Structure formats: C-alpha cells, structure tokens
C-alpha cells in the first residue's frame, strides 16, 4: 500500500512529453458575454496542467491520470500523472498506460453508425425496427428512429444492472440489448434523456447491417485505419494490453488498495472501450481533420459535419445535442465533445473544430475524488477558451417563482426516485438562487429572464455554468448548460415533501 505523498513524488517521473511532429466545459454565451481562444496559453499548458494535477493528487483522492492535447494536427502533450498501480508504485506513462474512457466510447459507435449511413444501408429517419431482428413497439404510434438514437431522444426509461466484476456474469451485448428493452415513457424525438440502452441499440444495428461483431467492426473500420493499436472494446482485455491498464483504487486511512476490474461489455457500444493517450490523439486529429488522418479516411466530410451539427436541445438558450456529440459551447469558439463516468474512471474529450484543438483527459479516483474530472476540464477550458461573466439582470424580480422541487428525467421510471434525483431550487434574493442536486449546492445569479449563471467555485476565465427555467408556471423545466443530455421537471413546492412526479 502507498500513501498520497508517494503519489506526489511520482508525478513528475511519470510525465511524457511528445513534441509537435465538462462537471463542465464552458457554456453558450448569452448577449453581453465574451469568449475567445487563448492560443498563447498552449505554450504553457503542460506546466499549468502539472500544477492542477499536483493539487488534485494531494487533495482529491486521485491515484492516476492522463491528459492528451492536440492542436492543428500535432500532438502537443500526452502526460501521465500518479500511478497505474499504487501499491506496486508503477507510474502512469503518458504513451503506454491504458485508460477507460467510459461513455466517450459512444463516439466510436456513432461513427460506426454514420458509416452505415454513408454506405447507404441506413437513413436517419428509418424506424430502428427496419434494422434489427426483434420488435420495439411504437409509443402512441410513433416509432424510434435512427435520429432519435443519435440525439438521445428515444423516450425510454433509464436502465441499470449492466456492469459486473464477475466475468462469469457477462452476457454478450446483443443478447443483453434484446432482453432488456426499457419502458417507453415519452414520445420519441421530444426531450433529451441520455440513453445507454439507445447507444447499445445503435451498436446492435451496426452488427446487424455489417454482419460483423461490434468489437470486430470497430477494430476493422475505425481503430486499424487510424493506427489506434492500443484500443479495444473487448473485455477481458486482450493479453497484449492487459498489463498496461490503470487500476482503480480504494482509499482508506490515507492508503490506496487496488480494486477489481469492472466489466461493461453488456453495453459494449455504450461504454466498454479502453484506449491510450496516443490513440486518442490520433482519433481527435482525424475528427478535427474532417474524418481523415495521414491519407486514410474513416468517414466522409459530410458525415463528420452531421455528427457536429446541432440536433435538439432541451432548453431554448443553452447548448444541446449534436448527433452523438454533446455541445459544450455554441460560440467563441464552439466546443463539442463527450464525457465518460465509470466506477473508477472519470473522463472527458473536448474538441474545438474551429481552432483545431482537442483535449482528452481521464482520471482514476476513489469516490471522493470523482469531481476532479470536472475541475480539470474546467481549468483547461478556462485556460484555452476563457470567457467573461455575463452582465447581471437588473429588471423585475423572478427568482421566487422558480422555487421548488424538480425531478430528473433520466431515471428508472418503474422505481421510486432516489432522493439524489431531485434538485431543490431556493431563491436567495430577487434575482439569485441556490440549486441543490446530486448532493451539492451551487449559487447562481440571474443574467436574463429565466436564465442564471454560476457563481460558486469559479476561477478566472470561467467556464460559467448556466441554468435555464422554461415552460409554464407549475410545470417548469430546469436545464443545466453543462448537462445537455437531461433535464429536471417541476414536481412540487419546497414544503411539499410528498409531491407526486408530474409525469407519473
């Protein structure tokens, strides 16, 4: 077992620099706010990240991390921090250590499905039933379309029970997808509610159309063409990769102990990828180069543009979904990407097509250290893409009308909601509110009618999260700019602890 101090001593030794050869990134800007690209910050970015990581290892129960940055076709850095295996004092190597990006895996699935579209086998508005060997009943006569999968609008309940630490409990993802069709709870295409099952179904379609197992397909048509030789969706990991994976750890009494491997391949297309920093650099460079790398193209420019194009947003004035990508910021410059959360890993990928800049980061942390990914993402975003706070609202008081309890739309609708699924909104003045959700309380000040900007926990340059209230009094919807993949529905007044879910 190894102490936190040993981790700090290993950080500098674990750094690899390759010379050139969210939480939450910044949100869309309302009128009066400004954002920009600080290209000069690229020169000092590695040293800046070194400082942030030293702080996180000291205070955030982070045992290991990887940060990879590309800009205009070049790898600026791929640095490892902390340990792969704390007990045996094996440091993270920025070139060879493997990390698990969680739901960033979905981007490979969306590319695979886009390849099916490019080949003419699938269309965005196809009923998904046209491409699978089982039947999904329509909701009020409306089928789920391929477009609904890309934008997370199938109108389905959330699912769980798809991870295990016991290899004997695994079933093939295709079997799991067929046997675990979620409850239909809303019309498709109306509201974004993040769906792991929907992405697993997208991978199922790729298998059905291509005739290849999903892991084989991605290796043959994405990883191999891009030279991503250290990436896989397979679990257990292939022998050639197994010894390079960063381990999750528990922290008790200041000492780390390794945890067992967590298997995600029952929802393989939604989250079972394993990658290296250099592989993610190649992937980001290809996507920032309209789908091509070193003369090899994995997707047409038109389909890359489709993935980046806005599809739907829950809130009228906040970022929403592209096609697979989450939209982190609409302008100054526009930022897209995807985050990933697993039991032991917290990851993020941020792309700026306008500037040709990409960031991939992955952190291994004990439970108390899980906020570290959002903090590191925000630090890098604020450094490279700084923004100024918006002017404050000085007109009629509005905060009190939004007070109440709100319930998240991404949940298992067949079960009693967990208390953490509620957000509690309280007015703290005529134009300011606090929001308590997922065990944390944040303070927001009003910048437009129904639109509030984060004040809690900020650093110079932002980013500044925003929340918007929309709909009608008594039926408000609440969205965070940092979470375009879900929203909250008003379910009752603050004192009404027994309020029923308005959606049933």
UniProtKB/TrEMBL annotation:
This is Beta-lactamase.
């Amino acid at each position: 077992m190894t102490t936190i101090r040993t981790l700090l001593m290993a950080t500098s030794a674990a750094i690899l620099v390759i010379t050139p050869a969210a939480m939450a990134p910044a949100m869309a800007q309302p009128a009066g706010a400004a954002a920009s690209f600080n290209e000069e910050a690229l020169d000092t970015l590695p040293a800046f990240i070194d400082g942030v990581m030293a702080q996180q290892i000291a205070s955030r129960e982070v045992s290991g991390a990887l940060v990879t940055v590309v800009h205009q076709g070049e790898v600026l850095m791929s640095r490892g921090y902390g340990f792969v295996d704390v007990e045996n004092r094996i440091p993270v190597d920025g070139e060879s250590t493997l990390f698990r990006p969680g739901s960033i895996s979905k981007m490979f699935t969306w590319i695979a499905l886009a390849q099916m579209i490019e080949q003419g086998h699938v269309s965005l508005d196809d009923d998904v039933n046209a491409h699978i060997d089982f039947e999904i009943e329509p909701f009020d006569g409306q089928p789920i379309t391929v477009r609904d999968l890309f934008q997370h609008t199938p109108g389905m309940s959330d699912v769980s029970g798809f991870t295990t630490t016991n290899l004997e409990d695994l079933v093939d993802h295709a079997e799991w997808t067929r046997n675990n069709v979620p409850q239909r709870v809303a019309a498709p295409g109306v509201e974004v509610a993040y769906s792991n099952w929907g992405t697993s179904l997208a991978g199922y379609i790729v298998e059905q159309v291509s005739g290849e197992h999903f892991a084989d397909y991605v290796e043959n048509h994405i990883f191999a063409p891009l030279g991503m030789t250290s990436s896989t969706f397979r679990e257990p990991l292939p022998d050639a990769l197994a010894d390079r994976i960063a381990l999750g750890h528990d922290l008790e009494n200041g000492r780390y102990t390794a945890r067992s491997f967590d298997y995600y391949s029952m929802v393989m297309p939604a989250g079972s990828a394993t990658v290296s920093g250099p592989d993610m650099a190649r992937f980001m460079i290809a996507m920032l180069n309209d789908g091509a790398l070193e003369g090899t193209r994995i997707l047409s420019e038109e389909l890359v543009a489709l993935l980046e194009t806005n599809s739907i947003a829950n809130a009228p004035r906040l970022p929403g979904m592209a096609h697979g990508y989450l939209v982190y910021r609409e302008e100054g410059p526009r930022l897209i990407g995807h985050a990933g959360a697993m039991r032991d890993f917290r990851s993020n990928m941020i792309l700026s097509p306008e500037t040709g800049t990409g960031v991939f980061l992955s952190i291994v942390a004990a439970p108390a250290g899980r906020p570290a990914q959002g903090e590191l993402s925000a630090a890098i975003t604020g450094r490279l893409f700084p923004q100024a706070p918006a002017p404050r609202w000085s007109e009629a008081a509005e905060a009190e009308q939004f007070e109440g309890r709100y319930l998240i739309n991404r949940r298992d609708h067949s079960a009693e909601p967990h208390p953490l699924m509620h957000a509690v909104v309280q007015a703290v003045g005529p134009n300011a509110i606090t929001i308590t959700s997922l065990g944390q309380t944040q303070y927001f000040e009003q910048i437009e009618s129904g639109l509030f900007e984060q004040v809690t926990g900020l650093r110079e340059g932002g980013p500044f999260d925003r929340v918007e209230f929309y709909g009608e009094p008594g039926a408000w919807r609440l969205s965070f700019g940092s979470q375009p993949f879900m929203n909250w529905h008003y379910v009752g007044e603050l004192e009404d602890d027994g309020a029923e879910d308005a959606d049933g």
